[in-house]
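Here is one chain, start to finish.
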Amino acid sequence: MKSLYFKTVQDVVNEIKNNPTLGYVFHVPISIIHELASHTNDNIVLVSTSGEYSSNGYENGAISGFSYKKEISEIIEIKNPPVLSKFDLEVGYNKVKNNKNAFMLLFLDGLSNDEEMVMTTFYFMKDDFKILGGSSGDNLKFEETVIFIGKKKVCHVAIYFDMNSKTQLLKENLYVPMSDKILITDADPINRIVKKINNQPAATEYSRLLGISESDLPNHFMNNPLGKLYQDDILIASPQKVNPDKSITFYCQIMPNTFVYLLQPVDPIEKLGETMKRIDFRPSFMYVINCILRSLKFQNENRWKQVDSCILGVCKNTTGFISYGEQFYKHHVNQTMVVLAVE
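Its structure:
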């Protein structure tokens, strides 16, 4: 697998023409993805982004991606509703399920709110099968997010990789609990709305726990999301907006009658260093997906160069993108980095 970086559509077209036996994934700004799609074929997947990642580090407005040998992969369109693709997904899974180094790369429509529905379609997979993915972006326009298989625009896409090399999947949170558990007492998970926390209006209780005014609450969403408990892990759920009835809309589902943590940030560079040390081998390739809210935090704090130095210091042959949500095994999360390392 080889990380790629391009500035123009023509540069990508030249790469494709010169290497007809390879498969490709490209992370593309929304402004040029339709143009690029007109030059592609069925061995190429395009996903729109809110920033790109390559061996040059983070950038906004470039084209990043990677090439690979077509014979190790299988590309499967996930239709709407995703249950229509269950048969194809299961057939593909059965081909690789006995390979502990196999994984699925998953791209989902970032404006559909269908991520959890797609993830439930994978019920036939073992829980330890590696899935990593990102929801497509449109650079914070929130108008259109796009995924292509060749020239065909699709809702979602899964790519199975049947790897010979060792692989490892990691997740990083930059947040830790700042309080005891709190209870979600009323929620509408389908619409990703939390109505009550500790049996109080969600915005009222959220503000009280932070010791701030309700009017100031949206300014604290980035640094103080909620953490959903799953076994011994914390999965981040990011608030999106406060509604007129004092309910709060999130970027992922939170179920009623579940406990969550109010979170606070830690030093991101120190945490990233710890994450990179968790890789069990020296990687020859890494695939990195960062949430748009992480990216905005790094931009606001002028941290991206430090982040790049830490990641690329481990493996220069790295690619990825900035997403509207992340998929880690069978979970959809926010404000997270997911990393696949290949030996």
